[in-house]
Amino acid sequence: MAQSEFLTVGQLAARCGVRTSALRFYESKGLIESMRTGGNQRRYPRSTIRLVAVIRAAQSVGLSLDEIQDAMSVIPEGRTPTKKDWSRISSRWRARLDERIQFLERLRDDLDQCIGCGCLSLQSCNLLNRGDKAAERGAGPRHLIEGKPS
């Protein structure tokens, strides 16, 4: 692929490893922008490659498209994001990512133990969740979501 200033939807999709339909979806949500040729074909600035990479990375760690869109709203329309823009986006996600990291660490470390889901199938469930006491704290794997009770 030539290092041109603008990419077709197919070139961008190939470079980013996504389907063209994903790019059109991101565009419909206001996450990326394209220009149109005289023949009404989409053309994306090369900087869109990084936007798509960040969108995909954020989705892969559990951020919703609404959270991604909210954070990317700091980028002025039609301008290539600067280092300062990326720092602002990163700071908006920091607390959410820290929560996600803590959850993933609990999942990694505690999946072979009682997670407070109510199945009562592991020997440790009888100690940590006798009679499914975790259900009083809500649905789902309470020990994973909130941590084990003290």
Automatic annotation (TrEMBL):
Gene: soxR
Protein name: Redox-sensitive transcriptional activator SoxR
SUPFAM superfamilies: Putative DNA-binding domain (SSF46955)
Domain of life: Bacteria
Pfam families, per database record: MerR_1
Domain HTH merR-type: 6-74
Alphabetical UniProt keywords: 2Fe-2S, DNA-binding, Iron, Iron-sulfur, Metal-binding
GO biological process, alphabetically ordered: response to oxidative stress
GO molecular function, one term: DNA binding
Transmembrane segments annotated in the record for this chain: none
